[in-house]
Amino acid sequence: MIIKLLEVLRIAGACLGVFLAYYYGRTPEEVLRIMTPWLIGSIAGCSAIDGLFFGNEAAAEKGFEQGSHYQRQNGFWFLAVAVTALVIFYAGWNAYANIALVFVFCLFLILSAANHTWSLIVEKNTSWQNAIRPLLTVLFTLAFVHPVTAILFK
Questions:
Q1: What confidence tens digit (pLDDT) does each residue in 35-64 have?
Q2: 91, 113, 115: which is closest to 43 by C-alpha?
């Protein structure tokens, strides 16, 4: 039950971040500044919680092996990314700090989505997370395209 709640919070927080960023952001820099901690913080923060505190339940829900040290390591990586997103936001670092974090995070999401797609197609693991992860990855990555390209190609 807690894993499903974390999944809902992960998606809802990311969606809320995209909405708030595009609603309140007047410039690409503002959009990126608002969206980065919400979207990355929601996904990475909830992933850190489920990986560090509910690793076996999360693995079972996704149809993956349980009790792996890689689950805890992955949880620590997510925690580091979530904390970094918050530090960048509260420290007021420039747009390029946000872009660097967005690039690393989106690249990870794309590789993770490829792994979920592999598991779905090749291993016949038809868990909801394997089916939805590629679509959510595309949508959340696309949310960053406008502000990032507008800043980089001024």
A1: 999 999 999 999 999 999 999 898 888 778
A2: 113
Q: What is the distance between the alpha carbons of residues 30 and 58, in angstroms, rounded to a whole number?
A: 34
CA distance 146 to 112: 23
Cα separation of 141 and 106, whole Å? 6
CB-CB contact of 125 with 63 (8 Å): yes
Whole-angstrom distance between the N-terminal and C-terminal Cα of the chain? 46
Residue 54, both tokens? 């509910």
- 70-125 pLDDT, tens digit each: 888 999 999 999 999 999 999 999 999 999 999 999 999 999 999 999 999 999 99
In angstroms, the CA 137 to CA 39 distance is 11
For the chain, the structural domain boundaries read: 2-152
Structure tokens at 70: 């890689």
